[in-house]
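#struct-help
A.M.: can someone run this one for me? Single chain, 236 residues.
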Amino acid sequence: MQMILFDLDGTLLPMNQDEFTNGYFQFLAGKMSNHGYEPKKLIDTVWAGTAAMVKNDGSSNNEAAFWRTFTSIYGEDSLADLGLFEEFYRNDFQKAKMFCGQNPEAVDAVHGLKDMGYRVALATNPLFPAIATESRIRWAGLKPEDFEWYTTYENIGFCKPNPAYYLEMTKHLDVEPKECLMVGNDVDEDMIAAQKAGMDVFLITDCLLNRKNKDISAYPQGSFTQLMEYITRDAT
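D.P.: on it. Structure tokens below:
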């Protein structure tokens, strides 16, 4: 094993996913309502664009998939507001940090694994632009440059839980799936999908997401301390 892939939301960055999403949308609607966007329609449209990204087949990046859907609802003229959305992520979005925690053990794990000679990348579901992803990395107490690569909606054309997302990452990182360990908190998106792609997995249980109440007893699992013990034991 030479490459460790980390999920971000709920893994390196502790959060309640629903609380974070609801708060983030509230801030977005508040910002854009001043520019003629009715809140419910805007949020419904963002969800539609998110669905388009999740279904994306790699024929375009996720950014293009999102905005195709957005403009199909609001019209091509809405592209003139791209600057407003970027302004939102630079400013109002930062308030969403209040819905997140910070886990020093997660920070220590990333730095410690790099010190041990492992390659480290960030396999966060690429539903956000880079500016938002980089903010969330910093909220976790880390820096974007701590990772060899991190996925954003600009730089990849697949999403979790599609195993092709993980395979695309391995192509970009020039590594075989069997040489990777995926570390995440989401049973469907991080465990099942990564295993289908041929990766080993470790389930972080601090902010566990198991929407379908699946049996997780077969997964190596626990806290970041237990992750480091698992990797160290595996290396010896």
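A.M.: thanks! The mean pLDDT is 97.
D.P.: also worth noting: The first strand starts at residue 3 and ends at 6.
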